[in-house]
Design goal:
- With 357 residues, the protein is α/β, with parallel strands linked by helices.
- The protein has helices at 13-22, 36-46, 54-61, 75-84, 99-112, 126-134, 153-157, 166-169, 173-189, 282-296, 304-322, 326-335; strands spanning 2-6, 27-32, 49-51, 65-68, 89-91, 116-117, 140-149, 195-202, 213-220, 223-231, 241-248, 251-257, 260-265, 270-273, 341-346, 349-354.
- Strands 8-9-10-7-11-12-13-14 form an eight-stranded mixed β-sheet. It has a six-stranded parallel β-sheet with strand order 3-2-1-4-5-6, sandwiched between helices. It has a two-stranded antiparallel ribbon with strand order 15-16.
Length: 357
Amino acid sequence: MKLVFIGVSHWHTSFYLEPALEMKGTAVVGVSDPNPRVAKDYAERLNCQWSTDYRDLCNRVKPDFVFALGRHCDMPEEARFLIEARIPFAMEKPCGLNSQEVSALANEAKAKGAFAAIPFVMRQGRLLAEVRRRAQGEDFQYLSFRFIAGPVSRYRQAGCDWMLEPAQSGGGCTINLAVHFFDLFRVFMGKRPIRVTTAVMANAAWGLAIEDYSLVVLQSGAKTCLVETGYIYPAPVAVFDMRFSIRTDRHYFVATGPDALEVSDEQGRRETLNLPTTNVPHYRDFVFDILDRVREGRPPLADMADMAEVMNLVDVTLAVIRDIRLPDVIASLVKAKSDRIFLIPVKQQMLLLSVPH
């Protein structure tokens, strides 16, 4: 299987590249990046072709699968090219700057039958598997996810200063980190509608145009999920100030660290399990799984439609924060020709808006 990597200056490239190099029957045949030095360095290391233009590269090497990264503002154009070229791909979240862009991609991917995978890697994690196994048949009541990453300097050190510019990244820790937990709440809730109840964002730590702290409350009926993220913990990449809590009908789960899950039940039993609880270890699982799915003709675990639903929650969160005018929100959704249901905050109430395709 011939693989191409787009946008290799992205700091997550190694999360996908290293496991891809481990797999039997795969070969990285090309890399691209707008920065020619970065692309050439990767190509020399991997003994493969390179280009600053991913279209030219794909037309030359004819890949069987593409891992697409890069700046968030460039992702919609990358995705449209791959969909039109009928090349199966996995794209780093968030795939665009807003729900309008991503919903349009989801509609296009669906119409063309494209394989467009999204690395919501918490779906592959042992945390989710263990909670489901222990709480089989139980409903979820309360969920809380605190996930505070290192300072913004890590993006500058990685050569990804664009992450700190809203016009290129779409925002800060909400669009980058909180989306994992928005998706996880969707998984736990199944088909039930979700609304954004309240949200707080701030840039007090670094004073940049993006938020360095975010607190969002999601609800589905009375079931409540709190998502707290930030770029304020003085720690290296992949080290977090974290704590996850999940209450079901008869169990209480607490991830007290990156490799510890405490499980309690109503009989007073309590045990601590040694298993990975964060997203980082599961990118390897994602790569192995997604390439197997392509080979076997199975759909991805999460696709562009899932990304669109999560980006809707991000946009509604921003609407709550910015007090955006409702007509602007409706106009953007109509322009995207979305066939999804959106929940829009209006004077402390939620308006259910269905925009037909």
